[in-house]
Amino acid sequence: QVQLQESGSGLVKPSQTLSLTCAVSGASISDGAYSWGWIRQPPGKGLEWIGYISHSGRTKYIRSLQSRVTISIDRSKNQFSLKLTSVTAADTAVYYCARVGSSAYSTWFDPWGQGTLVTVSS
Amino acid sequence: QSVLTQPPSVSEAPRQRVTISCSGSSSNIENNAVNWYQHLPGKAPKLLIYYDSLLPSGVSDRFSASKSGTSASLAISGLQSVDEADYYCAAWDDSLNGVVFGGGTKLTVL
């Protein structure tokens, strides 16, 4: 059974960098069949895709965050990470990590981690 | 404002059937597969439907989905209180070159 677990700082000051890690168990992050991604949900709002990284390290990000976001992979620890720089209150959200499946015309997230709340506040 | 449009809420009585709509465009729903997610309060979102209408292993066959043109819909039959959740549609968007979600629909079982 594949499981994902987010960890990282729950409180980040404005203009600083948000850093989160997603530990994967029950599957190898080097499995070429999947990528690994991040999705967030601001309080009271819907889900927003952030980006994903393939097993080979190729990344794809949402355009609105592209200048501030980095997703990286650590095969030795079977985990992947999210960094978001220059955060503002608008980045306050529950952040989810997920395994990403994709084909020529579909990209889906399964399973998801439990999510971690990150609050941006001084 | 989400790229995919869903009704904010729907409600129906137990044992009845409800549908949730998801409206998009040719850059997303019409030319790419729609996936549906169930988000129970305090839980991790769960993949409910993929490739427009396929059920992942373990998902109840009370759930079904379809797509026509730029719209998709999720149907839940035999409603139970455990189905109370937020439901999201999602698809790849060729213009935005990324995944887009609907705003979510809150299902209340009366």
Structure write-up:
The complex is a heterodimer of chains A (122) and B (110). Chain A has 122 residues and is mostly beta strands. Chain A contains no helices and eleven strands. In chain A, the strands form two sheets. In chain A, strands 2, 4, 5, 6, 9, 10 and 11 form a seven-stranded mixed sheet that branches. A four-stranded antiparallel sheet of chain A has the order 1-3-8-7, with no helix packed on it. In chain A, strand 4 and strand 5 form a beta hairpin. With 110 residues, chain B is an all-beta fold. Chain B contains no helices and nine strands. At the A-B interface, strand 5 and strand 10 of A face strand 3, strand 7 and strand 8 of B.
Indicate the mean pLDDT of chain B: 96
- Tell how many strands the DSSP assignment of chain B holds: 9
- Supply the helix-strand structural class of chain B: mainly beta
Largest sheet of chain B: 6 strands, mixed
* Count of separate DSSP helical elements of chain A: 0
Helicity level of chain A: under 10%
What's the SSE pattern of chain B? EEEEEEEEE
Distance between the termini of chain A: 39 Å
Approximate strand percentage of chain A: over 45%
CA-based shape of chain A: globular
Query: Spans of chain B with pLDDT under 50 lasting ≥5 residues?
Result: none
Distance between the termini of chain B: 28 Å
Report the structural category of chain A: mainly beta
